[in-house]
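Work Package 3 (structural annotation) set out to generate three-dimensional models for the target panel prioritized at the project kickoff. During this period the team completed the workflow that converts sequence records into discrete structure tokens, so that structures can be stored uniformly alongside our sequence database. As a representative example, we reproduce one entry of 251 residues exactly as it appears in the project archive.
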Amino acid sequence: MLRQQRDLRIVQQLRARGPASVHDLARELGVSASTVRRDLGRLDRDGELRRVYGGASPRAVPAEKPFPESLDTQREVKEAVAARAVELIRDDDVVLLDIGTTTLFMARRLHGRPLTIITSSLAVLDELRDDHAIQLVVLGGVVRRNYRSLVGALTEAALRVVCADRLFLSCTGIRRNGDVIDDTSIETPLKQAMLRASQSTVLLSRSGKFPGTGAVRVCSVADVDTVVTDAGSDEATLERVRESGGTVVFA
């Protein structure tokens, strides 16, 4: 079994069943106890689980905050990241905006510019709907009210015919192993479809998202071209971005 497969199985088992011993996990995975110990140590450093004596336990995942409430969390940092990200957009670009508070703050800085904005965010729609300089394209789908977004098969189908110059992607965490993760499985397929629909990808991630939270892998840092973050982000993770050919931009 490959290491990534073991990692996924370990995290899934802990979340489903609670704490487990090294020997139980070794038996479940069909590998040696020493292999499991190394896996648990690495996953603990990456923030995926909590290493305890003789085994491991799942890390608590914070409950999802409703979108309006999340606007005020780390607002100053998000505004700074949004301002720096907007500088990467050229007039006449076709821009794909993911959901999230930082992309909403970006939208507020795009008024009056000759752009095509494609989004599944109802918050971005509300912000830009009356701006006649912007051609606004809203992806269809089922309304997810707590996050003011559109999700589901219709959204994914619409993304299959999209060709964007630049995607601005949100996430809930970046691990030291280079995994970009999210804590909402319903949004992850859309993020992956957005990656396929864009010629380049800018990942928006304030320092608090290193390693962040989440159990669902969206992509690798090797799949993004630029990471926009703030001072204090984990340098080892940022170095992995650079080694993968990406650029790190600080707000």
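The mean pLDDT is 91.
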